[in-house]
Amino acid sequence: MLSDDKPFSNVTIKDVAKVAGVSHATVSRVINNTTKVADDKRERILDAMDRLGYVPNMQARSLAGGRTKVIGLLVPDIGNGYTGTIIEGIDAELSAHDYDMMLYTTHHRKVKEPIYVQSLTQGMAAGLLLLLPVDPSAYLEGLRRKKFPYVVIDHQGFDNFSSTVGATNRQGVYDGITYLIELGHRRIGFVSGPDMMSCSMERLAGYRAVLNDQGISYDDRLIVPGNHTQLGGYKACVQLLDLEKPPSAIFAANDVSAFGVIDAARARGMHIPDDISIMGFDDIPQAGWMTPALTTVRQPLFAMGRQAAKMLFEFIEEPKGPMRRLQLSTELVIRETCARFKDI
Amino acid sequence: MLSDDKPFSNVTIKDVAKVAGVSHATVSRVINNTTKVADDKRERILDAMDRLGYVPNMQARSLAGGRTKVIGLLVPDIGNGYTGTIIEGIDAELSAHDYDMMLYTTHHRKVKEPIYVQSLTQGMAAGLLLLLPVDPSAYLEGLRRKKFPYVVIDHQGFDNFSSTVGATNRQGVYDGITYLIELGHRRIGFVSGPDMMSCSMERLAGYRAVLNDQGISYDDRLIVPGNHTQLGGYKACVQLLDLEKPPSAIFAANDVSAFGVIDAARARGMHIPDDISIMGFDDIPQAGWMTPALTTVRQPLFAMGRQAAKMLFEFIEEPKGPMRRLQLSTELVIRETCARFKDI
DNA sequence: CTGAAAGCGCTAACAT
DNA sequence: ATGTTAGCGCTTTCAG
Predict the structure, then answer these.
(1) A5 and chain B: CB distance < 8 Å anywhere?
(2) Maximum separation of any 2 CA atoms in chain A, in Å
(3) Do A59 and B122 touch (CB under 8 A)?
């Protein structure tokens, strides 16, 4: 079963010790800088490490209870601009601290989450970054008891004890819909995100709030689920367009589903934005490059990743630090997919 | 799973052994399925693992010489669509095999490469995927001696002993330039990539070959370095446009630098593609979304990632398997940035 | 088949 | 200040 080719003569702390003529514990001391070591010995050790090309064994170190300089990152998927941009932000901060990243993709399978978290917290990682966790309540409790540093990104709803980084979802939608109303739209469709995601709820709340504040009658047939996917957006749009009184504008809870909405509208032969206005949420890179460019509510993805990592480092330094919740501001990015309402 | 067990009390193999009334070695046996174990014991062990919520400790396992189900991935950076798309492909294959990914970003610092590789090969990873390594010759030799499974992505030039996955760089450029020539262009600028990257060399070779084959005179002032960056592309374009006889079309060695070329041309008040034709290479997601959409040579990024992972798994299964070099076909994607040459 | 015992490379007491 | 000694959790002989 086990590879017969396994035995590689990796340089260990003991090899270094032998060459430097000291005990391996002393080598460990200079590596970790834990105790004073005589200058000449330190010198010899450093030299030996260099000559031998010593690279510490992460697993052994972590097993023995040392620091790892690795943070675990749990994401639902990758490749869509959303996750990618956040990872970029995280990576920027991590490399500034000389940390590395262990990436786990759950592919939205919720059963994987607790297992990965458990695995990561067994020593591999010094801290955890959870992006859009599906059902974190189960293991978060355990993390807190362990005082294991973690920060949740873009998911705020499940408890009041976790440090989180997110965006002003409610206000973002509020601003976006306000703009649509200013353009003269009154029947505005809303393609919602997954129910169990707190950001979905917040965005929907923003939609309701602004209609209410503006005294526009609320019609729940105008709210259809889109599940944050392109296909979901497509189907949602079809459903909306099939209404006896279809909306003149559609707000999609994220950019990806907005793309689906656009596809569906076009499939009906509609022209955007002349026949229908469409707005997204996120401002993933694609949003700006497509034609017509997507008007959307910008979520500062890179900054969110970076801030989350920054916050995590604070916890790693000071595990008993106070819980923090950071809400970064969204911003309406007006591009080309929304136009003034014109009655036909 | 019962909730009366305290979560996160780091259940070990010994705890399981105790509960099941066997030795921890036997537990290890059923975990790894390495020897026959009496059915009743196996039953009790499985049950205990489940009840206690046992999750194997990766570090310990790897230290002790076991399999890890992790592959290491070394990338120069992330966030640009190029790396992201390849990672996506890798991830797709990995999760099909139930493997996880340890991601290292070198941020183009070449000194990091050998250290990361060394670290990963010390047991953490079962195999290595190297994306665009800068200077792999040093450590590749060691990997091969250890028979450590690895696959290099998009870098073929450094030796003849490594398994690689790449694209038909030379042919891709050949096709692209041929198209430009068909459009009537005769003076075609070439914004090259980093000298030390083999794909740069291949792409440049394609450029030279087609000019030669078509009997078009070769002018080396038309070749300027762009370094695969947007800024590099910008500067290169400025340089090209400042020529006494500037080109009527510019081929950029990758899409990102093509973006810079476009920026620079526009800064000169030029209109694309009316005043100048521009072509890129890669077809990263942005290329299709921008306006005008970029005509480019498509490199099957997702497939490259996926195939590389697939190939890596073959090596993990069969470490002495033959070296393989896979060249995936590029494809000219005609969009909107190239037009027929018109003399003014 | 299965238990006992020996490490993997490292950190952290515990003695000096 | 530094060597000695225990493990961390696991895999893998080696005896039964």
Answers:
(1) yes
(2) 89
(3) yes
